[in-house]
């Protein structure tokens, strides 16, 4: 009996420790007015993106779900409209795995929408494969597609006054690295059929998100636009939909017990959207609705600048 009680105590203690650290919850307290503002959320049809869209629609914002799948987007819009009563949530087709499509999206948006206040680079995936342009899928979607989208929409953000760019990264950026030689040779930052290989590539892409935000803030100095990168927490989403069946069997029970739900996962994104007075923290990394320090390679000025320049070249911007 003693051993059983000891084991139960260890399990309970471990559970409490995990929920207060790795799986810690937070709550956005920001309450900036959103009525009359226009927001783009990539991947806004599911998970964290949908939860973010729902909250901002409830506050009266015009919310544009920038998604690849029309049917899923329309289903999400119906849900959001029913829950919030908003009639100002729309779908625009965006495939981040195609630079041509990103340009088409931006062109359509700039022709049809007069303002942009928030750009939320939310979409992401863990998978193996290639984009339409031949880039590793994680580098191409998680970083490069969002890089091009942001660059094409920056002027419209500046016009609105006080615009913000929020890019979802991950604590996984800590295990990432940027190998420019591999990128030049293979058009990716890691690939392969084994799970550990495309998880490493995911970490690399999330480091790119942090470095992108770090460099973007420097380039936005003197403007009224600010930017932030975000770790949403360890969340139950469709991010790992491409992993193998046996991994899902292992992950799912743990996810149900410990992972945050999408609403909890959206709180730090919402903090960076709605919290007033964080403009001096432009370029910083947020977790649990607070600014957090990052490792040295995630704030390396030289690497961040080179990643920007290489990304411009790969996107045909230079």
Number of helices: 11
Please state the overall shape, judged from the principal axes of the Cα atoms: globular
The main sheet comes to: 8 strands, mixed
Structure class: alpha/beta
Q: Flag low-confidence runs.
A: 2-22, 245-258
How are the strands of the largest sheet arranged?
3-2-1-4-5-6-7-8
Termini gap:
70 Å
If you compute it from the alpha carbons, what radius of gyration comes out, rounded to the nearest whole angstrom?
A: 19 Å
Percent helix range: 40-55%
Number of strands: 8
Order of helices and strands: HEHEHEHEHEHHEHHHEEH
Strand residue content: 5-15%
* Average pLDDT rating: 87
Your description of this structure?
There is one protein chain. The protein is α/β, with parallel strands linked by helices and about 325 residues long. It is about 50% helix and about 10% strand. It has eleven helices and eight strands. The protein has an eight-stranded mixed beta sheet, with helices on both faces. β7 (about 285) and β8 (about 290) form a beta hairpin.
In short:
The chain has 318 residues and is α/β, with parallel strands linked by helices. The chain is 49% helix and 12% strand.
């Amino acid at each position: 009996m003693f051993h059983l009680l000891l084991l139960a105590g260890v399990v309970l203690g471990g559970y409490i420790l995990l929920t207060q650290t790795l799986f810690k919850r937070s709550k956005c307290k920001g309450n900036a007015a959103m009525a009359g503002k226009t927001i783009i959320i990539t991947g806004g049809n599911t998970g964290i993106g949908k939860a973010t869209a729902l909250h901002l629609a409830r506050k009266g914002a015009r919310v544009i779900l920038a998604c690849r799948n029309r049917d899923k987007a329309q289903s999400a819009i119906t849900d959001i409209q029913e829950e919030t009563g908003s009639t100002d949530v729309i779908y625009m087709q965006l495939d981040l795995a195609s630079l041509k499509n990103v340009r088409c999206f931006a062109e359509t948006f700039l022709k049809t929408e007069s303002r942009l206040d928030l750009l939320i680079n939310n979409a992401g995936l863990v998978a193996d494969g290639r984009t339409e342009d031949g880039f590793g899928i994680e580098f191409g979607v998680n970083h490069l597609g969002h890089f091009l989208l942001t660059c094409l929409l920056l002027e419209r953000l500046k016009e609105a006054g006080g615009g913000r760019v929020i890019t979802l990264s991950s604590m996984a950026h800590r295990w990432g690295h940027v190998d420019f030689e591999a990128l030049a040779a293979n058009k990716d930052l890691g690939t392969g059929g084994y799970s550990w290989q495309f998880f490493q590539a995911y970490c690399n892409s999330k480091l790119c998100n942090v470095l992108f935000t770090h460099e973007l803030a420097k380039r936005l100095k003197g403007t009224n636009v600010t930017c932030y990168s975000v770790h949403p927490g360890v969340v139950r989403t469709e991010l790992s939909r491409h992993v193998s069946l046996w991994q899902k069997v292992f992950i799912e029970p743990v996810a149900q017990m410990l992972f945050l739900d999408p609403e909890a996962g959206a709180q730090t994104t919402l903090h960076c959207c709605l919290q007033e007075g964080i403009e001096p923290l432009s370029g910083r990394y947020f977790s649990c609705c607070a600014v957090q320090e990052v490792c040295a390679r995630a704030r390396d000025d030289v690497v961040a600048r080179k990643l920007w320049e290489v990304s411009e070249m790969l996107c045909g911007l230079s």
